[in-house]
Design a protein that fits this description.
272 residues, alpha+beta, 28% helix
Length: 272
Amino acid sequence: MIIPKTREQIELMRESALLVSKTLGIIAKEMVPGVTTLHIDKLAEEFIRDHGGIPGFKGLYDFPNTLCVSPNAQVVHGIPNNIPLESGDVISVDCGVLKNNYYGDHAYSFEIGEVAPETKKLLQITKESLYIGIREFKIGNRVEDVGSAIQKYCESNGYGVVRELVGHGLGTKMHEDPEMPNYGKRGRGKLFIEGMVVAIEPMINMGTKNIKQLKDGWTILTADGKPSAHFEHDVALIDGKPEILSTFAYIYKALGIVSNEEDEFRKLPLIL
């Protein structure tokens, strides 16, 4: 069952989402060759707790850390470790926060040092597909309208769209209805309703759509060992249209990137 939120509840969720955004912005400066993902994980946990939040992933379903960090052929749910990052790596960092009894949850794929052009393109197309999907999150549409738009765009560029892992509703629980797949057929799935909040998160592979899982019970890999990319935003349906609660602006500020990609999904300018 979809649980719509009031405007007041959505504002509390925005606070949670923005704490995730700020956390990703803090670690963005640290995503360089030689750093370990355990170091990044420690920084994230300290920042979240110092700002009134609780790491949303740590202990959830017995996950051991604050961040899911997934380099290269790892799709999602990678566990932080002491292996230094290398130039050419691409790493998905997924972060969750519990604040004001509501969850925020979003992700960004970082380039480490000099990344191959074909990998840069994978990241570009995956991020573009996120916004293509968000545009379909509106009154009158259904769940698979979002997935269909993402799938069409990514597959037209030759990429594999993961089937087994999906986005989700968000609220007082990390995972609420509805599931938000990154594939589908237009006109199918649950009808969107005013006040619902979802996490839309394309997980796109350079090669096959097929995946496998490591023996750790968490880490998901591409079946062919080719790189994967992952981007995620928290989005509320307000006045019939999508409004992004999270932002990549803190990451972009840290990395010196100029972008207006989120402007169409905000009613008010974001104050950093």
